[in-house]
Request: fold
Amino acid sequence: MSRALQPQLGRRIALRGALLGGGLALVTGPAACSTGTSGAQPDRPSGAARSSTAGDTTPSKPRDGTGTSPPGPAPGDEGRARVLLAYFSRAGENYHYGDRVDLAVGNTEVLAGIISARLSQLGVKHDVHRLDAADPYPDDYDATVARNVREQDADARPALANPVESIDGYDVVLVGSPIWNVRPPMLMHTFTEAHDFTGKDVHPFVTFAVSGLGATEREYTRACPGANIGEGLAVQGETVHADGPTAAADWLGRMRLPGQRT
Reply:
């Protein structure tokens, strides 16, 4: 997208996948997973998100007060969670088959909940962490489109309200987001650049309108040297409730996850 804001229709087409409910995915741009720090953006948070642990079947919910990140599980602890499911999602006014719809729960958060439920069915202990922006995105679709364009043009790192403290104890990281203008929200760069993913299995999942995974897997490979980039999952935002359960089950079934029942 050019540095000048495109006409309203063009912006809507370009970013419709992005605002499908905001969850997480990196398509283009350097969402670096190397050691470092930075900022990012969340979906329509009303406060900080907590982290759910192990057998939880739903993603973390916002709570009052300043967000605190989940500490990485202590290495050597028996029964510890070795899988982290971290995602960003945006509710509010979203693109929907060329029109607009108000979502109480963002599409990517819906998909994250489906994935978490399936992990529990498989016996996989895991932590769930919803990433929220320190400066929440507006509910208005076009206002969010314009803000995302500015952030992409500036290569911004929006601050996180509730950064993950450590990923050291995790072997597998499932990273989710919507696709915004063929890229993940810039907040995802903030998350990945704060951690060292060396030796970890990273599997992206996204919700989209027309882009699918795009260049997600290629971008993660380039941005996360030392990580093992696994197969990604892309589910259309408008059909996430209907298609998400089967898609997530098939996707997870092709992985080897710590503690998974055979």
